[in-house]
Amino acid sequence: MNHSICQEICCDVLVIGTEGTGARVALEACEQGADVIAVTKGFLGRSGATLTADGEIDIDSRSAKTIFGVAGCPDDSPEEFAKDMIVEGDYLADQRLVAIHTQEAPQRVKELVEWGATIEGFIHAPGHRYPRGLWIPGLKLTRLLARRLVKSGVTILENTLVFELLHDSDGVVGAVALNLPTGNIFILRSRAVVLATGGAMRVFPLTTAPEELTGDGMAMALRCGAVLQDMEFPMFLPYCFLTPPALRGVIFPYDVSALLEVHALNRHGERYMARWDPKRMERTTRDINSVAAAMEIRTGKGSHAGGTYLSFKHLPRNLIDFSTQWFPGNLQGWRAAGFRLRDFYPNIGEEAWEVAPASHFWNGGVSIDEHCATQVPGLFAAGEGTAGIHGANRLAGNALTMTQVWGKRAGYYAAKFAKKNKLRKPPKEQVEAALRKVGQLNQESSGPSVVEVRQEIRRISGDLIGIVREEKTLRDALSAIEDLRGQINRQHVTCSDPQFNREVSEGLQNENSLDVIDAVVRASLHRQESRGALYRLDYPETDNDRWLCNLALRRRECEWAIEEVPVKSIHLTLPSGKRQYGRRRENDHSS
């Protein structure tokens, strides 16, 4: 396949990603007077992770009561909300960013309601001391923002994959993109670039995420000179359907566990959470729940399909029948992800569901400051795939809050940056290197197919990284990654037609996914303790004396560097000493 630059398009602010975060970025940048191009590799309003969010968007309970009239608790506040985020993130969150997040959240949700969003419920999710989850289904939120984006005057490029950032010695100057329907390549020149590309959950074999989540933004930022942080903490969601195959990865069992008292059981019928968080049991946070389930499976106590069991047979039948009436919005009537659960389980509650943890969210990612700026001038990032907001674990409902709080901030500061800077010509050698990257994906190569490379990435992630890690398997993963790097430039496609060639986009995404799992393995090896979403079998304790630090990763050429950045105490006192993983102190929420 021969490729050349089809077109150069210029703008003030280039936004990569158009869903929850990207739409909010673009809307704010446009409001600030910037000429904005927003790019999505799918269809606007029909792709991205926001679509899959069942619904809660968090603000402090007092503000929820005051602003929206729901049954919130007046004892809560943005400060109390921030404490919960810091504690349940195992103290690795940036306390400055957390304070901004909780202070600005109420106004951002108020704007959504003013724009037409409807609150369909209010829940109290595990890990929160107060109810904070205003229920706005992700599908409806995505469509709302998409409609507003279309009316805003922002230029929208659909079905277009941005696969490389362009930069000079003064910072970012744009990006290179592949238009999937035509196979044409665009140079997108801009004064500022905002990454709103989400996480990399598709590197794992079992995931709740749609196919677009392949780590593109994090990998491109890394290659551009930005820092990745907290990459050892990809988040898994416990209690996702494992069977039947049609429901595999659907998160409804976890939603039920947040709304009803459920029992998580191993093959012996034991409530295994008693060994991990005996006080909160199944209503502990998702990191601890996922680690516990993974350990049951690892030690041969799993279910028939290789997961664990979730049961609510102990609940009275009339209570189960009644519960469907008060479940929030899109979950009523025992419906989930477009399915009627009674089609699969006619007598809901009579038998346990087979479930397993699935890759669900990316806690770490591109390092940003309070202005969403990275270490590369002109490069901004927001939403999932950025670091500092959640630390080692995210509380339920904070993903949607993140899209709006940080999307607006990124759009505002990127537009301000763009007004003060000129368009610069991209370096010719970088453009040529990007063209070669696409040209290498040809039929004549003797290397593996792009599908085989993708499968190997998922095998490495599932078999050698996973939830429970140890030095031997992590070093095996590093070796496998290095072997695959030797093959990545030789991967080939089976079809040479440039139009709608999914193999080409898969091949470009494979490099991004490989860069991301490389960072995950290196950070996981370096951190010799268990904390949040990382459980080291060979270092099972949480060590606050040694490891209250963030791991910042850089890569120049093929050389990696890891810096330990001590956590700063601003709003909440940091703990000391060692403790058993999963066990919280009684005074953890005190300032």
* Proportion in helices: 25-40%
How confident overall, as mean pLDDT? 94
Rg of Cα set: 23 Å
Q: What percent strand?
A: 15-25%
What composes the largest sheet?
7 strands, mixed
Distance between the termini: 61 Å
Tally of extended strands?
Answer: 25
Specify the number of helices: 15
The secondary-structure class comes to alpha/beta
Q: Which descriptor suits the 3D outline?
A: globular
Low-confidence stretches: none
Which key terms come to mind for this protein?
591 residues; alpha/beta; 5-stranded mixed β-sheet; 20% strand; globular
Concise structural overview:
With 591 residues, the protein is α/β, with parallel strands linked by helices. The protein has helices spanning 20-31, 61-68, 78-88, 95-115, 138-152, 216-224, 252-259, 286-298, 317-326, 398-419, 428-439, 450-465, 471-488, 502-526, 544-547; strands spanning 5-16, 36-39, 56-58, 122-123, 133-135, 155-157, 160-168, 171-179, 185-195, 228-229, 234-241, 263-265, 308-311, 335-336, 339-340, 353-362, 365-367, 379-381, 386-387, 468-469, 535-536, 541-543, 549-556, 559-566, 578-580. Helix content is 35%, strand content 20%.
